[in-house]
């Protein structure tokens, strides 16, 4: 089982972003309906949304914000892109009564240009500029294998420079800086952050994979995208 293998290797994974546990703090962002500090209008405006992120991190003296796995988020109402259902094989199922709101990865909120580091040896599976409003923007998917068990990690909201001169099959070493947080015009029009998502079976997807699903389909999607903190191991450092 992938989860069990990742647990065995946890001490060997390299941090995905520059982070010093002895001095850096993480703020746990909540983007469910329970968060009354930010309005839908602020979330819809990327600059206002970014100002909110920055002000909260500054106030709490945190280097990064983090969170979002298995979180039912109201913020996806900012784009009609999430009103379109997606099937596991990549087919758009059309606009549905139940929009996609359940987040399947972990978001790390921080400054644009923040370096992204590979936690383990892997190969570039695919990459793409997903330029829908509130989509991933520049995206890289890396294939890994542990003890004969394959899995993938999707990195979303990167800079366009991150996918420049890239090619499928390129080897990426553990500890190698291979990308960076993008600005709003290249990361899907979001405040700077990194979406990290584990994918067990990627099927025929290339350069893209749903990071948000309908709540009613939560179980099947989460089964294929286990908690990224199995690799990141950052939640233990969240500010109390």
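^ Assign residues to that structure.
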């Amino acid at each position: 089982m992938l989860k069990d293998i990742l647990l065995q290797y946890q001490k060997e994974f390299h941090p995905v972003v520059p982070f010093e546990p002895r001095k850096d703090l993480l703020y746990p962002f909540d983007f469910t309906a329970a968060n009354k500090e930010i309005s839908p209008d602020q979330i819809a405006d990327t600059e206002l949304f970014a100002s909110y992120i920055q002000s909260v991190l500054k106030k709490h003296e945190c280097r990064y914000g983090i969170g979002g796995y298995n979180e039912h988020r109201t913020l996806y109402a900012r784009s009609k892109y999430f009103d379109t259902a997606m099937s596991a094989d990549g087919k758009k199922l059309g606009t549905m009564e139940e929009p996609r709101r359940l987040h399947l990865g972990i978001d790390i909120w921080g400054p644009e240009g923040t370096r992204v580091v590979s936690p383990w040896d892997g190969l570039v599976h695919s990459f793409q500029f997903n330029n829908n409003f509130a989509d991933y923007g520049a995206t890289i998917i890396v294939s890994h294998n542990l003890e004969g068990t394959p899995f993938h990690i999707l990195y979303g909201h990167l800079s366009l420079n991150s996918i420049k001169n890239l090619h499928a099959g390129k080897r990426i070493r553990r500890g190698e800086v291979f990308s960076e947080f993008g600005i709003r015009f290249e990361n899907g029009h979001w405040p700077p952050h990194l979406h990290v998502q584990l994918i067990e079976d990627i099927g025929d997807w290339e350069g893209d994979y749903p990071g948000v699903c309908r709540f009613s389909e939560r179980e099947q999607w989460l089964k294929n995208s286990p908690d990224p903190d199995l690799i990141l191991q950052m939640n233990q450092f969240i500010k109390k």
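DSSP finds five helices and 14 strands in the chain.
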